Amino acid sequence: METPIHDFLLENARRNAIRAYMPGHNGTGDIPLSHDITEIKGAGVLWCGHDDYDDTDVIAVSERNAARLFGSRGTLYFTGGCTQAVQTGIYALKSIGVRTLFVNEYAHRSVCGTARLIGLDIRVLNAPSFLSVGFDFENTIRELAETPNAALAITSMNYYGEELDFAELNRYVLKHAITAPIFIDDAHGAYRGFDPDIKNTPLFSIGFNGVSSVLVAESAHKTLPALTGAAYLHTLSDNFSKPFLKHCAQVFVSTSPSYLALESLDLCNQIIYENRYGDGTTATDNFADIARLKTALSDLGYTLANSDKVRVTIFTNDYGYRGVDVADIIRVGNGGNSIEPEYADERAVVLLFSPIKNIPVQIITDIFAAIPRRAPIQTNTSHTPFNAFGN
User: Is residue 92 within 8 Å of residue 248, measured between CB atoms?
Assistant: First the structure.
């Protein structure tokens, strides 16, 4: 697959022209500094208005490559994290007339913060359990259908790796013939571009039902080989055109996007393409290794969540520890090996792995096996309704 941004940056560095433009380090030295540029001639323009959008520049071509890989009608790149993609999506909802936003209780703060900033009425959907992404599909979709100028904003998955059943949600959307827009904050799910079992993702199960207008925000840097800040916003409806969304994005984004992050998104396309249409062994093998690690930890007596394919969530209270305590133990490790976890709290520690980097299953298993089991403990995990705005 072509990599137009990467190719442009290579050629620009090879030219060795006098750099009379920012940034101030002037590209001195090798990659990455020589590839860190501003929007010079030929480099494309990430953010523009309706009249200025050029679908032939190197950024637009790369974004089209990503759209084909992810199955969207159009994909936008972001370099300020998934938060910028979320902000753009929520603002786009208001721009087409949305006034009330239904959000699940686990909604990311960027969803609620943006909604509050731009004056949307927020209705929080109660979760069935602590930190769950779930909500009552039947009643929510019915209420959504009865509320004028409303949209649904969903954050899924959570830090534990719990996901909504999007195929089941889609059945209710179809049942009630929903025409309200749906926004999905799928920040942790971009790795599924590697996954052959992709049919339960937001893009596939909701995006083409012909009923709802759908936007999906995903963070590339969380689970893909992309630099921090790299993210996507996928549009699954002609109601949300790329020029319109780029216009909405200008309220929140920097006018100096990181070309290093853009290059990493460009190269991600090639990596996903080669893994999917080449021998396809790397990600498939790593998914299997992560599943094998889950089995090994379960055999040691740890309680594991039913998490997604790149995440291992260990509920540690049954083993006699708080999650934060286990995190400190594995940071020290044993035998010269240690682990820095993705996340830890009072009841769990979470390990997050790359779909393209080999997983040292035995080393990780040995570190957890060295932790002595203690009597189970209880921590405060009572279900407290989420309050994004204080009292």
Answer: yes
Q: Which domain holds residue 208?
A: 4-277
Tell me if 125 is assigned to some domain. Answer: yes
Q: Write down the residue that tokens 């002609």 correspond to.
A: 238
Residue 237 has a CB neighbour count (10 Å cut-off) of 18
Q: Return phi, psi of residue 244, to 5°.
A: -65, -45
Burial, 293: exposed, middle or buried (Cβ in 10 Å; 0-12, 13-18, 19+)?
A: buried
Structure-block tokens of residue 386: 């989420």
pLDDT tens digits for range 159-183: 899 988 888 888 888 888 888 999 9
Is the pTM higher than 0.85? yes
Number of domains observed in the structure of the chain: 2
**Which residues fall within 8 angstroms of residue 334, CB to CB, at 6 or more apart?**
366, 367, 370
| 67-86 residue pLDDT tens | 998 888 899 999 999 999 99
Three-class secondary structure of residue 77 per DSSP: strand
- As a dihedral over the C-alpha atoms of residue 359, residue 363, residue 364, residue 370, rounded to 10 degrees, the angle is 170
131: left (phi over 0), alpha (psi -120 to 50) or beta: left
